[in-house]
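Dear support,

We are seeing what looks like truncated structure output for some complexes. This example has two components. We would appreciate it if you could run it in full and send us the complete token output so we can diff it against ours.
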Amino acid sequence: MKLASPATIPDAHDDSVWTATWVPGTDGSPPLLLTGSLDETVRLWDPNNLSCLQTNTGHCLGVVSVAAHPSGRIAASASIDSFIRVFDVSTNKTIATLEAPPSEVWQLKFSPDGTTLAAAGGGSASVKLWDTAEWQLIATLSIPRPEASKPSDKSSNKKFVLSVAWSPNGRQIACGSMDGTISIFDVARAKFLYHLEGHCMPVRSLVYSPAYQDQRVLFSASDDGYVHVYDADGKTLITSMSGHASWVLSVDVSHDGTALATGSSDKTVRLWDLKMRAATQILSNHSDQVWSVAFGPPGRIDPRTCLLASVSDDKSLAFYQYS
Amino acid sequence: MTMEDEGEALRRRLEESLDLHPDDPSLHFDLGLLLWEKGEKSKAAELFVKSAKLNPENGVAFRYLGDYYAHFSADSQRAHKCYQRAVALNPDDSYAGEGICDLLDQGGKESLQIAVCLEATQKSPRAFWAFRRLGFLQLHQKKWSEAVQNLQHAIRGYPACADLWEALGLAYQRLGMFTAAIKSYGRAIELEDTRIFALVESGNISMMLGTFRKGIEHFRQALQVSSLDVAAHYGLASSLLGLAKECINLGAFRWGASLLEEASEVTVEIMSLAGNISCIWKLHGDIQLLYAKSFPWMENAWGLEIDQRTLIDSIMSWKKKCSVAAVSACRSYQRALHLAPWEANLYIDIGLASDLGFFSEENHKEGLNSWSLSEKMCLGSLLLEGENSEYWVALGCLSNHNVLRQHALIRGLQLDISLAVSWAFLGKLYRHEGKRQLGQLAFDRARSIDPSLALPWAGMSADADVRNLKSDEAYECCLQAMQILPVAEFQIGLAKLALNSTHLTSSEVFRAIRQALQRAPHYPESHNLNGLVCEARTDYESAIVSFRLARSVMSSSGNYSKSSLKDVSMNLARSLCKAGKANEAFQECEELKKEGQLEPEGLQMYALCLWQLGRNDVALSAARKLASSILSLEPSLAGASTSLICSLMFFISGLDSAITSILKMPKQLFQSSKVYFTVFAIHALDQSSQLESIVSSCSYSVVSSEDISSMHFLLALGKLVKHASKNHLGIQKGIHHLRRALHLHPNSSVIRNLLGYLLVCSREWNDVHVATRCSGVELYDRKEDDFLKSGFEILGAGAISCYTTGRINKKILFSTCREQGLFERDPILQLQRYLHQEPWNHNGRYLLILNYIQKVRKERFPQHLCAVLQRLIHVALSNPLYLRPETSNEYKKFQLLLCVAEVCLQSGNYIDCLQHARSASMLQLPGGCLFYAHLLLCRAFALQDNLVSLTKEYMRCLELKTDCHVGWVCLKMIECQYKLLADATVLALCFEECSKEIKSTSNMWSAVYNLVQGLFAAKMKDFGAAEGFLSRACSLAGDESCLFFCHGTICMELARQQRDSHFLSLAIRSLKKARETSPRTLPVVSLLLAQAEGSLGNKAKWEKNLHDEWLSWSPETRPAEIYFQMHLLSQRHRDSSQNPLRWILQAIHLNPSCHRYWKVLLNVNG
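Here is the complete output from our reference environment:
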């Protein structure tokens, strides 16, 4: 496996780019990349000719997360003041505005079937779920507080929820907290199941393996510099991979479940071979911390290849060919 | 006409033609064909014969004849000949070809078939039928590579023939070309998804290649097609087993177990289909054996109180489950052996399974003879296959007799010298017997042969002392072993090696110990180590639980030494202490004390607990006891004890007694840097510097740069305390010290940030600017201590306190502030980055809000930004953090309330504004802060024209007083504006008092105060008084352009009113000064100057200044007046490029409401 040399867009945004996600292709359009930045805009990119198709404004503070609906038609973006804007990808028409108290929305993810939008609930120590038909808040999955402590700032701060991920079958949600624990929820029963432990610093990114036999495998990236591989059903830490010199800010897995890409504060993007449990490639084309990496859908011509996108504090956006 | 009639007609026509031309072969043939189709075969055959006789080149006729003979007259001889003729005439004729081959096949003449096909293929490359037939035949004869060629050729003719693809797949598979085989099978499945053979075979290949996940998929698909297929079942079970092995090798025991359960169910299903196949029983045995070896202990959520019974029960049930699986494995192997007693490896399997089973049940049955069961079974294998080296190794592992073991292993090596496993076990055996040199050699041998074997690595790390390995290297070796094979022994070893090193908090160790717990819950050390790992990761609650579990396991098994029990108790006490449960920790210590096992380390804890519980006397006596033994301790422990004693002394009996006891202590104790810091901190607090000699004599112990910056940190804090006046810390002294320190250590972020923090706290003019400059904003400086402020916080605080910082809209504002452009980037953006990095940080959010209000203020409170701000503040205020009565939180709440009140005020919502400001004024804060709440109330009442309440609030402000000049200046403004109190001296007095605290820059504040007074005087049209105030202000602050500017303007006005040239020259002087001191070109100044100079009659200067004025505006911001003035200039120079008329028109265009411009326009035109 290999990442081919990147095609970089140097000043993709006016300021740090914090988040990126792929919008699946529809009948009318190929897969596109959506990015969000501190400059309060969300931009849509065509990876084929590296052009910006659209710039969406409307947020009052930096955009911390963007998420795309599996249909590829709608997407959502959230900013630091916790407004979630749901919009039509092609027309940029606002479909809904979801509001939560500031600090109570961080990462967004649509469920695999597209019926629910999950948001890492930040300081509320929970994951919030909105249904995508009526855009109503349908559930709040709270992380139970430790029995001993009283509701003070320390404990709720510790459980600040930064990241969220759906299992490929849509039955489970994992969320990562500031104290390094990962909490697993049963979505149908809206019930907390258990914690996965092992990180000792904030968990900023989570992703389940999409490969059919590995749907219980969860990857996590944390500020402690490790990438962990968990058996989410078996509550077990399977592997820990180290190599980044600083925080690991983002992790994504290729569609066949064999490769992992991570972005880090050490300004590099790493490609990991999961069989070897080691980094096979280190790309240092960014000049500042890399906030997000995202594997695109498999290529139309050769389904074994796809694009990887990375965005960074250096305002740039890079595409790599993964094969 | 019906079809039949048509046929009849055709027949009649043909018969008639035949009568006319009896020698035409084609007519014979056509009629024959017609009859053949009608079913009159024999008549047709006759016609065909005739046709063939007339035209022997007509292959089709021969084909029909062949068919007739083959199927209707059963004359295979003739049929053969006819077909042969047909094929000879047209080798592409697949029907005839198939016919002849079928005939030959029936006759069992395979070689003839091949010959026919070969002939056809040689004759025509398009004889695909022949290629296909040939390919199948060759496949049948196991001529794989020839078959591949022919099949490939045949596929060109029949690309959608699943049989061909399947056959090609098989050929490839047999040739060992697995990927090609999988592709071919895949094509066959694509064409027909019920191809069970292709599915099963591709599953088998996937399994062979180790891609069990693919294998499982294929077998599942096969089972969907045929749910009773034994091969598919078997394949599925073994793929599941393979995947489970993979998982278990990663340490995912639960995943593995669930896969094994599934696999076991599948095998049970096959047994009901075919119970007499040995290999299925063997597979079931394998599955059960692995299950027994990997089934994890389910860790319950143990509460704080551990029920020993439950724990033991859970461990027992786990053991039981493992042993049941082992027994079941043994039974399955026995059945397999019963079915196929000639399979030597089954004996070994039984041996292995029974060994494990007995281990689990822990009952060694002494048999009739000295041979153990597993040993005997091994011998069974060896009797059948004595030359198999692996069997010898198995014997070597399973035997109980060391001599026999050694013999077996060496025998294995004799058979295969490069048998790494054998070397490894030999190494283990030697090590066990104490022959470490030999053991090492054996391990090294094994490792060099096969580095992917775990045991030699483990052996290497175990021999670290003999091999002179560093502890890190030993750790790496053990890690390697554990990663190859995650067994509990290696994992516990890894955790042990990580103790006392930085690895203890690493993920590897955490993972290792958690996995070890799943497989060795009956082993107290795994719980103990788990506790230590949790403790190192500051998860004290879990650590406490683990230590208690460890103790429970120990006491239930009963054969553990007192010292190890004591160690666990010590660990428990320490964790309890760290978790802040002093009471429980104390009880643990008491227990230890009763046992007489309270050694120095325990004593330390004991003293600490006692102190935390408030039993100071006992704590001190414990400390004394500790002190008495201090010299006999090893250095690190002695150092810790000394620090503890010093701190306890300080906290319990105060500074002086701590100092006296430090003075009494022997000096060599202070040599470690940690002790030194304790002493140093006490020294920093001491006004009389009694510890000077000790501190200076031991300062050499501080070497590292980190320690040096910490020392400066302490020194600066000491200065703050030592030079404090009654209400204020000696901040300036601290700043002074830190500046020097920073010069020495310019890259110490600790010093930088403290300096920045102190500068922000300081009330000197301009210090805030410096603060934001001196503390570097590092992205990843995570502070561990709440006391240390990060660069971001200083930046945020500095940016708030300085109105002019940040990205100013330069088109609109002309700032006279000297310190501009300090921020490379907007602080609001910087703070957002900070918040993005640490979103849980309330402080960051708070600073962002405050900065945001500055931005909103700069943009004059636009509606939408106000809305965002209000939302941010409301939510921030609802944070439970602000419900707790802590001064810092109260203060933040106060600030936020003031902000929201200000926003309400600006958007005209006075009721809310009053409400927020009132609730702010109710908070428990010093008067100096509450002052501002009342100030805001003043402003709100003033806007409502409520003079009574305004006066009341004003008086309240005067009562409360503030120690900030800005507050007084604002109050003064309100006073002046609403003419509140005639007696201005009260305020002036307060202001003076306030200035005392600030030394170097208090003049500046007086100047501002005068400025305000002057401006109000000007507003009241009392320009004489205004000039007086402003000139005083100018003399107080020598280099503030804005003061000079104001002064100059007032002077101009005075000059205009009084027509006094003295004021004109004053104005010129001040305006020039203003221009000189301003950091950038100020607008209007030059215009005024031009006017002044013009009034004095100096035309050249007037012109020059007007030009300057023109240049001091950016093109898009120039007001109408400038254009108008420029018209004057261009009127003077008739030759200038632009027509004066145009200037006037431009001025009117910008400001059409000014009559003056219109008038001039009329004049010019007129």
